[in-house]
Each structure stands twice: as C-alpha cells, then as structure tokens.
Amino acid sequence: MRIQLLDNITGKWALQWIITWFICGVIALSAGFWLTTEHRTLDWFYLAVSFIGLICVVSLSFRKNVMGNGFGMGATAGEVVVQATSGAVGLMLAPLFNFFTHVYGIFYWSKHTDPDGDMIPKSASKAVWLITAAFIVIGLVLFPTVNDLLASYGYAVVEDDNSLFLGFISFFWINVIAFVLSITAQAAMILRYSFSWWLWIIVNFVWLIVNLMSGNYIFAIQTIIYQVNSFVGLYEWYRSEQQLAASNNY
C-alpha cells in the first residue's frame, strides 16, 4: 500500500523531513534535560549521547551506511560509558552488543548498496522468520537464568524488585522482553531485513514503559522520537524493496 505523505517524506521531502525531525528531537530532549535532571556532568553526557543517537537512527532509516553505523558506534559507545559510570555494569551488555553489530554493519552494508550508495534492504524468508521467532522464545526462556547468574557476580542486566506495571504486569518481565526484542531487532536490521522495523516499533513501545516507570524521562522522550522514525524507516525500506523488484522485472 502506498501512502502519498510517506512517499514524499522518503522521497522529495527527505532532507526537509530529516532536518525538521532532528530539530524537534533536539528541542524535546533539551526540554526533558532542563526540566527533569540536575544538570550534572553525567546528565550532560546523557544529552549528548541522545543527540548522536538521533543522527544514527534517522540515517539508518534512510539506509545511510557511514552515517547510520558510524554514529551508531558513537552512540552505543556513549551508552556503555553512561551505564558504567552510573554503576549499572549489567546494562552495558545491550549497547556493547549493538556497538559490535554497527562495526560489522559498516562493512557489510558497504557490499550491498544501490547506485546512490544507499544500502539495499532484503525480504525475510519463512526460515528467517522462524529463526527469529525461535531466538526470541529461547532468549525469553533463558534470560532469567542467565540474569540470575550474572546477578550472583554483581552484574545483573535487570533487577527484579517485584514492582508491577498497572498493578499486575511484572516490571522485571517488561525489561526482559525489551532486552530480548531489542537485540533481535538490532541484529535483523544490521542483516538488512526490512521486518526489523516492525520489531523496533514493538521495542520502542516496551522501552517507553520501562523509561517512564524508571523515571528516565530523557530516554522516554527519545523513545517517542525514535518511534516516529521507525514508521518512516519501515516505509522507506519496504518502498526501496519494491522499487528494486520492479526494476529487476524490466
């Protein structure tokens, strides 16, 4: 299904959209920074990392390799530092994983580009869908055991404090789902699968709950901004797939 507005945003209005989206993101994150933090050095670093993250995700949605994966490396390295300096050593695992996927992506994407130098996305076969689903299920099953093992060494990825969302949903499991889905979405995106954006849409929704419950309002705002970009990225990647398929038929 073609949507004219999204056709324009991912086509002739792309530059205007990117600039507008980025400015809105900077304003929203800056407002969250001034209103919800104590303006400590670490808070300033959080803000800077979030700005780099904005450049990363919008570049990835428009299939820009060097900008997307390059700034992705910078953003994830910054998140590692943030978690390390705040004492959340276990939470360093996800950004560390993402950092190395961006390192791989910057080389892998360069081998699959169109004449404009943009990465060419691909469709997932039934086998890929099954492998992805199996990875998610196995990850959800094994995560509590692995997390308990890490916790015994003082490096828990998720702390289970028995808190509930809406009075009946375990906050621990919300975090687990967010973690497993995010690394799945990241891997699928780096491997150039368009369906990865569907996963990111789900991930962003879950992370929004996590960030609001943990009082991390800067990253809650960032998640909303990312969600808008995810829908654009979803459309852009599938549109490029269709265009490539159409050109191959001639």
Strand arrangement in the largest pleated sheet: 1-2
Overall pLDDT metric: 87
- The helix count comes to 9
* Rg, nearest Å: 18 Å
User: What best-fitting shape do the alpha-carbon axes yield?
Assistant: globular
Instruction: Give the end-to-end Cα distance, rounded to a whole number of Å.
Output: 21 Å
What can be said about the biggest beta sheet?
2 strands, antiparallel
Listing every helix as H and every strand as E from the N terminus to the C terminus, the arrangement reads: HHHHHHEEHHH
Q: Main traits of this protein?
A:
about 250 residues, about 75% helix, 9 helices, mainly alpha, two-stranded antiparallel sheet
Structure summarized in a few sentences:
By secondary structure, the protein is an all-alpha fold. It is 74% helix and 2% strand.
How would you describe what is shown here?
The protein is an all-alpha fold and 250 residues long. The protein has helices spanning 4-9, 14-36, 41-61, 65-85, 93-108, 126-152, 171-190, 196-213, 217-248; strands at 164-165, 169-170. A two-stranded antiparallel ribbon has the order 1-2. Strand 1 (164-165) and strand 2 form a beta hairpin.
SSE inventory with pairings:
Layout: H1 4-9, H2 14-36, H3 41-61, H4 65-85, H5 93-108, H6 126-152, E1 164-165, E2 169-170, H7 171-190, H8 196-213, H9 217-248
Antiparallel strand pairs: 1-2
Helix pairs in contact: 2-3, 2-9, 3-4, 3-9, 4-5, 5-7, 6-7, 7-8, 8-9
